[in-house]
Amino acid sequence: MVLRYEHPVPDMSLAGNRFELSGPAVWQLIRGDWFDAAVTYRDWVRREAKWYPRLTAEGRPDTPLWMRELSAWALGGGTPPSCVGAMKDFGKFLESPIGFHWVQLAPDPVRQ
User: Fold this and answer.
1) Hey, which of 30, 84, 90, 96 has its CA 20 to 30 A from 23?
2) What is the number of structural domains in the chain?
3) Where are the beta strands (DSSP E) in 33-81?
4) Is the dihedral of CA 83, 87, 88, 90 positive or negative?
């Protein structure tokens, strides 16, 4: 098995070009699958990433209370008329407020 990684350097054909990564690069052999790799990365981020928020027992302090108290989140897409009614029906079915992460995809130029 061969593992290869490339990090193209801007203007690498120019003499005297100096390049440094914007941060540390860390490699680790992981025995497992994508889930094991994701858990390892999550743990590293929680320990090392300066941008990762410090969490309290209640979660992120900058997350509004109404968002933390939602019992369900749904992910969907499409036009507003096609998904808003379905999400309202979903909330009624659960008898609870829900959050909806709406993704509107760009039109596929091949199918037009």
Assistant:
1) 30
2) 1
3) 72-77
4) positive
